[in-house]
Design goal:
Elements (H helix, E strand, L loop, with lengths): L16 E5 L4 H11 L2 E6 L3 H11 L4 E3 L3 H4 L6 E4 L6 H10 L3 E5 L6 H14 L3 E4 L6 H11 L6 E9 L14 H4 L3 H16 L5 E9 L26 E8 L4 E7 L8 E8 L2 E5 L4 E4 L4 E3 L7 H15 L7 H20 L3 E2 L6
Parallel strand pairs: 1-2, 1-4, 2-3, 4-5, 5-6, 7-10
Antiparallel strand pairs: 7-11, 8-9, 8-15, 9-10, 11-12, 12-13, 13-14
Helix pairs in contact: 1-9, 4-5, 5-10
Length: about 350
């Protein structure tokens, strides 16, 4: 819903008014919205003190609630950021879309492709914007690499190697991240989705056709290699992987070889996305660079910038203009089909066709 200011003789749009559900990663969303010129009018979290602390730290005075349903019929709210555990993405996103709110949902869009498709269907049926938060797409250096790739000077991008590795980085043991029913998986669906999406998007988002994956849980079940998040919750579970690896094949011959880990014996944490073309390579890592056909290496000097502010600005622009966001819900569905196939491949010890129905 857009508003006008009656004090002026012409229509003057007011800032988009948003609510943020989840005061954890929601902190980044609030900061991004404020930098992009939106008004954060409500924060919802089960812990009201957590919401109030976020409001105090950002200098805003939002309506604070502990039940998202209190926001559904609030006509002052134009859009909602969903920043809650993965299993809650689908029910909340669908509820807000049906209530006439635009939705920005944290990655992954859902815990499986069926749930993700229901979100996409709700967005289409209700004529609302639904965007997936894949914040790496909005970094300055990555946008610079995207421009380089689209220039065509690297030829055909045929192979990518990507990694999202933590050495001792299992998030709070026994919390929602380590429970299959709530998270949908471990590092593959947590950090791996970032790097897989990045390689897929930079390469032009070709249609995925098959996936082959393996998963391991060699540290988590024994409460080893724990990371941030506080002491273990002994009442909780660890029934997800702590390492996933494999390959995804796409139409036209492009493939992505990936590794996503929370725990492994290795020298250091590492995150990169390396794309190889017939006329050069694009290497995004701690020191982004490009390599031309003659082997000449050139650094990419653009800094990371403020990707959250840029992401929220893009979402707000789509809310106001009605154009499709990037990434939209349909792209989120495709990524969930890839993740589903990788997890199924690991379970069944075979390559799985993307979209293949369960027996």
């Amino acid at each position: 819903m857009r508003h006008t200011n009656s004090f002026y003789p012409f229509s003057m749009p007011e800032p988009v008014q948003v609510a943020v559900v989840g005061a954890g990663i929601g902190r980044a969303h609030v900061a991004g919205y404020l930098a992009a010129g939106a008004q954060v009018v409500a924060i919802c979290d089960l812990d009201a003190q957590k919401s109030q602390l976020l409001a105090d730290q950002t200098g805003i005075a939002p309506h604070i609630v502990t039940d998202y349903r209190a926001l559904l019929e609030n006509d002052a709210i134009d859009a909602v950021s969903i920043c809650v555990p993965n299993a809650l993405h689908a029910p909340l996103a669908i509820a807000f879309l049906r209530a006439g709110k635009h939705v920005l949902c944290e990655k992954p869009l859902a815990t499986n492709a069926l749930e993700a498709q229901k979100i996409a269907d709700a967005a289409r049926k209700n004529g609302k914007v639904c965007m997936v938060s894949q914040v790496l797409r909005f970094r300055d250096d990555i946008l610079a690499l995207k421009t380089e790739i689209e220039s065509g000077k690297f030829g055909e991008i045929y192979y990518a190697r990507v990694m999202a590795r933590r050495v001792r980085g299992i998030p709070k043991w026994g919390g929602w991240f380590t429970q299959q029913k709530i998270a949908g998986g471990g590092p593959l669906i947590d950090t791996g989705v970032h790097i897989l999406d990045l390689a897929w998007w930079l390469s032009g988002s070709p249609r995925p056709i098959a996936a082959s994956g393996v998963t391991y849980a060699e540290f988590g079940p024994y409460q080893k290699h724990l990371g941030a998040g506080g002491p273990a919750n002994e009442a909780g579970l660890f029934n997800v992987e702590d390492l996933a690896a494999g390959m995804v094949r796409f139409e036209g011959g492009f493939s992505i070889h990936f590794e996503a880990a929370w725990a492994i014996h290795a020298p250091r944490d590492e995150r990169f996305c390396h794309l190889h073309g017939t006329q050069g390579a694009i290497l995004w890592d701690d020191a982004p660079k490009i390599i031309d056909a003659d082997g000449v290496v050139a650094p990419v000097t653009e800094a990371g910038g403020d990707p959250w502010a840029r992401e929220m600005a893009h979402f707000l622009d789509c809310v106001e203009s009605g154009k499709q966001p990037d990434p939209n819900a349909n792209q989120g569905v495709t990524m969930m089909k890839i993740l589903d196939a990788l997890y199924r491949s690991a379970r069944e010890n075979r390559e799985v066709k993307i979209g293949e129905r369960e027996a």
